Amino acid sequence: MPPADLPGTLGALRAAGHPYRTVKQELRDNLLARLRDGRPRFTGIVGYDDTVLPEVERALLAGHDMVLLGERGQGKTRLIRSLVTLLDEWTPVIPGSVLNEHPLHPVTPAALALVAEAGDDLPIGWLHRSMRYGEKLATPDTSVGDLIGDVDPIRLAQGRTLGDPETIHFGLVPRTNRGIFAVNELPDLAERIQVALLNVLEERDIQVRGYQLRLPLDLLLVASANPEDYTNRGRIITPLKDRFGAEIRTHYPTDLELELELIRQEADLVAEVPEHVLEVLARFARAVRESPSVDPRSGVSARFAIAAAETVAAAALRRAGLLAASRDRDEVLTGAPSSTAGVNKVPFLTPVARVGDAVSVTSTLRGKVEFESGEEGREIEILGHLLRTATAETFRARLAGLDLSGFTALVDDGKAIETGELVPAAELLRQVGTVPGLAKVLDRLGIGDAPSPGQAAAAVEFVLEGLHLNRRLGKDVTDSGRTRYGGRD
């Protein structure tokens, strides 16, 4: 609901000194105000501060419609939707106007007549900026009527003539008048439908079934598209490309820290995922993106790493649920010794993911990756190799220079350490006991000197896997799914 102190009539609006501004003037003024005050301009956008966002800001200040080009999962839609925050929170409208007409600037014959008749006594309404955004996902079945409008047969049946503008049912674009309209995946729009947008972008009027309606639309038009060298489904016609004032290329996060920041911001984790595991997944996503076995034109969405983190967290939660069904909750979730079964001395702790849980993502997320045609049948093998590479790189980045001989000594004389998806943290920690150097490992991994059993087990498993990948430990997977780390033969 709008604040009660806003003007309620056209006369009160004039007396308050409210100016009429176009959408592009409004965006320009509000963006400049934020630039001068040092306030954030776009929220929830990661990795574009020095590349994409300056280009977007220049386009807005210039009053240009824009098209964002980039592979899938680069945040194009998120960025477009964030533009709404640069609009005024509330704007006046003529109540009942399909085109959200400004009381000081009516455009339709009906609104002009209404303002002339009521004068300063005309009641006005207020529209929140969240209602000034329209969006259409371009699909082959999209029609001109959907975007621009069509003749309404019901109104014709009521006795209106074809020459009466009131017989027109307006489409999505004019209904977003005085707002921001977005067309997602513009190349998917049939070329004959794209032609209908030419007048919207240049002359700012619309044509419906032979009507020449001089309705000066006031909107910012933004489109998203994959680069033309990738999409085979269509293209943006040259006259339409020429009418966009700015063409802006988006990209994936440029460095590892930005990839991690994006995962932290977007992933909905149902269990604790330690930082070193998130780093493995971030490196994994970047490795997949850069792999010669993956089609570079399709890209690897940022949603790949986000879904991987959520899958790993779900694996930890599943482990906790399965183990809780057969063992006392204290032993499974808090690491209390089995002799205390039935005594709930320790509060419930969030399950903690381990690096071994990441193996599950190679099968569940392969559908998010488009491989080169010659790699058919090897998808899981390729992803598994890249995941091991990412784990080894994280191990070296996090634990390089530490003395880990205490861990290699655990498997002396033919001993082995068993871990795996259904091995409780308490069981893994009982096998390793007190390990020299574990405190430094925990410190390097950012876990601290008072870890929960789940966090300590995650650190131990990471070290064991890293030593194996660096050929300092052997590794076998048993028929029951457990992983056994031992000495190298």
From TrEMBL:
Q: Which InterPro entries match?
A: P-loop_NTPase
- Name the domain of life this protein comes from: Bacteria
Q: Which GO terms describe its molecular function?
A: protein kinase activity
- The protein's name is Magnesium chelatase subunit I
